[in-house]
Amino acid sequence: MLLLALDTATPAVTVALHDGTDVIASSSQVDARRHGELLLPAVDRVLTEARLRLDAVTGIVAGIGPGPYTGLRVGLMTADTFGLALGVPVHGVCTLDGLAYAADLEQPFVVATDARRKEVYWARYADSRTRLTDPAVDRPADIAEQVAGLPAVGAGALLYPDTFPKAHEPEHVSAAALASLAAERLAAGEELPAPRPLYLRRPDAQVPKNYKVVTPK
C-alpha cells in the first residue's frame, strides 16, 4: 500500500505519503489564497522526499471537507485526476475526522473549522475515531449549549473562545492524519466513500439576479 493523501478544505495545503504502516513524507503550508499554486509542488516535494515516483502510488486519499467551495474543489479535482491517470482508487475522508484523529483524545470533544461569515463547520466526537453527528455549519453562539463544557480543536474553535473556552490545537488538518486514518480503516476492511465534497452551503460567488442577457442581432 502506498497512499497519497491531500486536503485543501482549510487554509492548509497539506500532502502526505503513507506506506500502510507509517507516514513516510509530508508537507503542509498555510495559505488560504494559494491552494491551486501550492498543491502540486507539495505533491512533488513529498514524492522527492520519499524517493518515489507518482506511479508507485496505489491509492489516493482526499479530504472532502466541509470547506469553502474554491479551496475544496482544488484538492478534489486534483485527487480525481491522479486517480484517473494512475488507475487507482480515490478515497474520501471527512476533513473534520482528520482533525479529530490528530487530536488523539479518548473523551467527548468537538472539532470546529473556520467557515467564514462568522460561522464554523463543526461536529461532535465520542473519541478521536468516532464521530457522533453529521458535519454542520452554524454560528458559534447558536451551538453553545450543544458544545458546552467540551474540549474543542480546530481553527474555528480557537476563533471563538466564548463558545469554545477549552479550545486547543491542532488548528488545521494534516494530510498525515488523513492518510493514517484512511490506512487504518482500509486495513480493517472498511470501504471508504467516494470523494464527494461536503460544501454545506452555496458558494460566495453567485450569478446576480435580474441581469441582462445580451445577444447579438
TrEMBL record:
GO terms for cellular component: cytosol. InterPro entries: ATPase_NBD, Gcp-like_dom, T6A_TsaB. SUPFAM superfamilies: Actin-like ATPase domain (SSF53067). GO terms for biological process: tRNA threonylcarbamoyladenosine modification. Residues 32-145 form the Gcp-like domain. Transmembrane segments: none annotated. This is Peptidase M22.
